[in-house]
Amino acid sequence: MRTGYLHGLDWLRVVASAAVVYAHTRDWFTYGHQTWWVNGVLDTAVLDPLRVGSLMAPLAVTTFFLISGLVVTYAAQKESPGRFLARRMVRLVPALWVVLLAVWLVTRLGLDAGARGEHAGDVSTLLTNMALLNFATGSPGLDLVTWTLVVQVPFYFLVAATIPAMRRWPWLPPALMLTLLSVLMSVVRNEDAPGAHTLRVVVTLLPIMVLGQVIALTRLGKLPVPAGIAYGALAWLLVVRGDLTSDFTPAVPGYPQMVVCIALLTIICSRLTGGVVGARWVKALADRTYAVFLLHVPVLYLTPHLLSTTAGTTLAFAVAMLGTAVTADLLYRFVEKPTVRWYRGWENRGQKSAERARDDLAGRVEAAR
Fold first, then answer.
1. Is 141 helix (H, G, I), strand (E, B) or coil?
2. Where would I find the H helices in 113-146?
3. What's the pLDDT tens digit per position in 121-170?
4. Is 69 helix (H, G, I), strand (E, B) or coil?
């Protein structure tokens, strides 16, 4: 059973985060009607020969889904359903709300932070985004990268609901999830309405997180290797089915093949230890990837495109990256980390109080005898 810290996944998260930022930076220059020489060099020398020039963001997001499915399955081995959900929400929600509030405020000031929709400054828009309901209702979006959380949060609830079964019958949770997703994929075929399209996205991409769970259960020795391979194949076939039965989701050429490559890369990286992957700076960067993910688009769009015109796109890129790095570090240091520390402290105090109460009751029973 392999239960140690997976340093290689930290390195993979950092690489995936850089890929997302690069992909959205290219979009940012296009939005500002600018060109950048670095794009041309990378596209010509690296990305086009590998045929991944337009796939950077999908590659990275799929990597995040796989890693998330793997890592939270590890966490589920030692947490109750309630604690599991609470810890995931404490990790995600405070930083999300702070970023959405900040984007909403600057949007109300008339600045462009990448928000979409003419009513992005309305209070109802803020509340809808904070509940992640904008993707279901078609409301304006304040930070559109948050669509990934619409995929992840249902998976967390599914994992929490199946934790008791996972400990007794580890083969059962992935079987139940894949069956449910297969049924939903048959039912959700019309993607015209925003809610239906969002549900289709969730149903199509959740098998990737289940694949991450299967990898974790196999690494932990909960599933025999042949069973892990079988479950992995079933999850991948659902990805293929989703790709074949929709023109919109995932709408990425060769997506099923991409998932296989990323799964193999994740398995390899999960075995890496020491060297660069175990370096402190890799862990520090990996800790901040969620903050970078939430902030890089708003910071990019807040950086004036006039800077690109007057001072050169390289300087504009440097300013945008510095802004992203600084704000992400601040978000991690003053929102993510303190919130998690406070919750863990509260959790530990409650556990110690319960232990003292049990000891006191045991003492009274013993005295009564």
1. strand
2. 123-130, 134-137
3. 899 999 999 999 999 998 899 998 999 999 999 999 999 999 999 999 99
4. helix
Find out whether 94 and 344 touch, Cβ atoms under 8 Å. Answer: no
Confidence (pLDDT) at 54: 67
Place of tokens 């993707």: 135
Query: Which residue blocks in 138-254 are alpha helix, DSSP H?
Result: 147-168, 172-187, 194-219, 225-244
d(CA 286, CA 7): 10
Rounded Cα–Cα distance for residues 302 and 61 (Å) = 23
Look-up: residue for tokens 């992957």?
A: 277
Strand partners, 116: 141
Task: Annotate 35-52 with b (16+ C-beta within 10 A) or e (fewer).
Answer: ebeebeebeeeebeeeee
Task: Please tell me the distance from the alpha carbon of residue 364 to that of residue 359, in angstroms, as a whole number.
Answer: 9
Tell me the residue length of the chain.
369
Cβ burial of 304 (10 Å; 0-12, 13-18, 19+) is: middle
- Residue 351 is predicted with a pLDDT of 72
β-bridge mates for residue 141, sequence order = 116
Between the CA of residue 239 and those of 200, 212, 260, what are the distances in Å?
Answer: 12, 13, 10
Amino acid at 202: V
| pLDDT on residue 308 | 58
pLDDT at 295 over 60: yes
* pLDDT of 364 strictly over 60: no
SS3 203: helix
Q: For 215, list phi and psi in degrees, rounded to 5.
A: -60, -45
